[in-house]
Design goal:
This protein is an alpha/beta fold. The protein has 13 helices and twelve strands. Strands 2-1-3-4-5-11 form a six-stranded parallel β-sheet, sandwiched between helices.
Length: 333
């Protein structure tokens, strides 16, 4: 295996010059740079990554911390991260969080510049203590799908989104509207709770009483939503419309409606949230949020902070759109 000394000998330059070329320093004449690069190519030399990191005082790694790695909305955000970071020298390192304790462990470990150059935190609000630790250690960090009073973040207005979805059903004449969500009080994210708040606001504005039996919380996932929807749709006074906190749950409700031979949208209207790829295939009415774009913009913002060795607070709110398809229609009767 060729060494940096072999490259220097072949290019007839010093080892320091080869190092400067590898580290993309401007303090090398173009003709000399060309000779060194040719020698690197001829010898099939691969610079030692650890040495390069040490010489530049950087790890060239970005930590991406997120819960529930298998859910479609998070995968789509990760596609945006990969799309933006793929053309750079940085490497994304994924940390999938399964519990609050694991989240705290990762944040404690990664809030040091010796570990990574920056933190990209997806769908996990931080405590004040966690935010203070990040800022105290001066590590650049950006949150996606979670707001923060100190750190930069990319968000949508989920309260407005919940109101938009519920209002669409109200405009179609529905009075009996259920909300099916993840657990509202979760240590990982607040989006389900925010969408629920928008749901309540829309009902109140329309003068529709809130019914406790129409609020259903449960674990994430299609199968869990299916089981919950079976209970909801066989209630003695079932809803004529269901708003779910994400498209994955909406698909579970569709499964339950088919099992019970409930026609959609003639007898039951259904609206989801996120506009994942499966929602288009199933003609699901939904609230579209720019998942891929949030990953792109969050990564772009973080890399800008990393390159300039900065922290900062920049709040970016991305737009939401109602996508009307075949699962919503006028209230029966």
């Amino acid at each position: 295996m060729a060494t940096i000394k072999d490259v220097a000998r072949k290019a007839d330059v010093g080892v320091g010059t080869v190092s400067r070329v590898i580290n993309q320093s401007d303090a090398v004449r173009p003709q000399t740079r060309k000779k060194v690069l040719q020698a690197i190519d001829d010898l099939n030399f691969s610079p030692n990554l650890s040495a390069r990191r040490l010489s530049l005082g950087k790890t060239w790694q970005i930590a991406v911390i997120l819960p529930y790695l298998t859910l479609p909305s998070y995968v789509e955000r990760l596609r945006g991260v990969q799309q933006e970071i793929g053309s750079t020298d940085y490497y994304p390192i994924l940390y999938s969080v399964g519990s609050p304790e694991q989240r705290d462990e990762y944040l404690n470990m990664l809030s040091e510049k010796t570990q990574v150059d920056g933190l990209l935190i997806i769908s996990m609000p931080l405590s004040r203590q966690q935010t203070r630790k990040i800022t105290r250690n001066q590590i650049p960090a950006v949150l996606i799908d979670a707001a923060d009073p100190i750190l930069s973040h990319i968000v949508v207005d989920d309260v407005a989104g919940g109101e938009l979805a519920t209002q669409h059903l109200i405009d179609l004449g529905h009075q009996k509207i259920a909300y099916l969500s993840d657990y509202l009080d979760t240590p990982f994210q607040s989006s389900g709770k925010d969408r629920y708040q928008g749901y309540r606001i829309a009902l109140q504005k329309a003068g529709i009483p809130f019914r406790e039996e129409y609020l259903k919380e449960g674990p994430k996932g299609r199968e869990q939503a299916y089981q919950t929807a079976l209970q909801l749709l066989t209630h003695s006074d079932p809803p004529s419309a269901v708003f779910t906190s994400c498209d994955t749950k909406a698909i579970g409700v569709l499964d339950a409606a088919r099992h019970l031979n409930i026609p959609v949208p003639d007898q039951l209207s259904l609206i989801g949230y996120d506009n994942i790829r499966d929602s288009e295939f199933l003609n699901l009415t939904t609230i579209s949020q720019p998942l891929l774009e949030s990953g792109v913009q969050g990564t772009r913002l973080l890399l800008d902070l990393v390159e300039n060795n900065q922290q900062g607070q920049l709040s970016v709110e991305l737009p939401l759109t109602l996508i009307t398809r075949d699962t919503t229609g006028p209230a029966p009767g």
